Amino acid sequence: MQTPLLILGPTASGKTAYAIGAAIKHNGEVVNMDSMQVYRDLSVLTARPDAQELAAAPHHMFGHIDGAETYSTGSWLADAQAAIHAIQARGRRPILVGGTGLYAHALTQGLVPTPPVPADVRAATRRAVGADTRAAHARLKQIDPEAARRIEPRDAVRIARALEVFEATGRSLSDWHKDPQPPILAPGTWEGIALMPERDVLYARIEARFEKMMETGGLEEAHRLYERGLDPDLPVMKAVGMPGLIDFFEGRIGLDQAVARSILDSRHYAKRQMTWIRNRAADWKVIPV
Fold first, then answer.
1. Does 180 appear as a known binding residue?
2. CATH 1.10.287.890 in the chain, residue ranges
3. Strand partners, 195
4. Are 95 and 61 in contact (CB under 8 A)?
5. pTM
6. pLDDT tens digits along 13-59
7. Residue ranges of region Interaction with substrate tRNA (predicted)?
């Protein structure tokens, strides 16, 4: 049975090309491990593989979820498990690639079971976090100091998740983390690779790539999604680039400002990804790119 290969890296680090090369070399099939590339509405802004790249090797779980849905880590894990088993049954190697460390962690370390959060609790919590992220992080320090140490004060998505679990259950997210389910990929049954570019090189790539996205349909794609009138708290509406472009569509800032903000947001995201890899994937093989 072919050993799954997991490829992590920050945005704009060349993961797609590396994964396709690995799939060709190892008779593999590529499985998406990025939480935004699952959404059908955003192809350009999430840097999903294009038609030529999709034709170079079999790909799975890219653009298969409508933006109106919230695709949980548990849902991704179930789909990924099915894809891995099907690929192995064909005698081929699963190549999982993406920048979502939580997916890789759930796959190799186990998923922490948490109860569903009522929609009204989730919406209220995310509004509060969006209004004052630092105050929300300060509150998190009071109710879940362990989570507050793990989560950066600017990481609104993870702060909101920790707070909404507490609001819904009265139990901190860190307490829930003490009871993980066993991993789908046991130790010794998979290989992990982390692509790690130099920061200055990566930042230059991010800027050039986002500007190219604006020239190749990214702006129009974002506007089509905006015109759907979806709940602003949905994950797809918070994809890197969308918040700044929404401000542009609603007349609060100019396009140049929206692009500059999106590039800055991408840099912050990449920094968080690299920090996660250094801290949580320290035993993976690191490849400078």
1. no
2. 199-271
3. 287
4. no
5. 0.85
6. 999 999 999 999 999 999 999 999 999 999 999 999 999 999 999 99
7. 34-37
